[in-house]
Amino acid sequence: MPAWHRAANARSSLRAGRSRSTGSSSRSSARKPIRPTTSLPSRASRSHPKKKVYLMLNKPKGVITSASDPKGRKIVSDFLPGIKERVYPVGRLDYDTEGLLLLTNDGEFANLLTHPSHHVPKTYLATVKGVPHGTALEKLQNGIKLEDGMTAPAEVEYHDVDMDSKQSTVQITIYEGRNRQVRRMFEAVGHPVTRLKRVKFGHLGLENMQRGKFRHLTVSEIKELIDAANSKSHKVHKK
Q1: Does the annotation mark 94 as catalytic?
Q2: Taking Cα atoms as reference points, which of 111, 75, 74, 117 lies closest to residue 90?
Q3: Are residues 74 and 188 in the same domain?
Q4: Do residues 209 and 193 both lie within one domain?
Q5: 138-153: per-residue pLDDT in tens?
């Protein structure tokens, strides 16, 4: 037998031997890649889940809602002893405004409450110069043209009138969250604000909470705020 024929037979026998040793599994394994019987834990499961914190602070006047202040003024975190998590304010409450401020580290929750399409009601007590009436009240209730556009309709009612100081306190509920909106609305009708306090966010009120104090929200309060954001009854239309 020629040498080349013997070599060909040897190669054929070697291939046949490999095929017999592996059997049909060699063909199936070529079609179906072998997967490990165990899987590695995902990155999320390997890391510690962040503790969600939901707080309500009765913010004093003269406090910054930023994380720091180059002028050395008080910031909201100064009033949160024992809170190790880094929390952020839900919406705006400027330096000169006091009252109910929500803080959380839950970005999805904060976005839900502040997104312009959700119109969560926020109620303020505004002490203003003079006594708004007639056309001024109608403008506040129906919408006022500000430099950043028309405001949505608001709910307005008198809370107190002090004829000696020629000032009045008006309760106003708005469904937006523009910068210094309530102050600008009253200024636009000729009754500048001298004191402003937020007393409600959705159905959540300050009640008897002392100025500068905070507390954790309950599960039911968190749910009520989420429901308020999703409620169709709060949808408003600008005129």
Answers
A1: yes
A2: 111
A3: no
A4: no
A5: 999 999 999 999 999 9
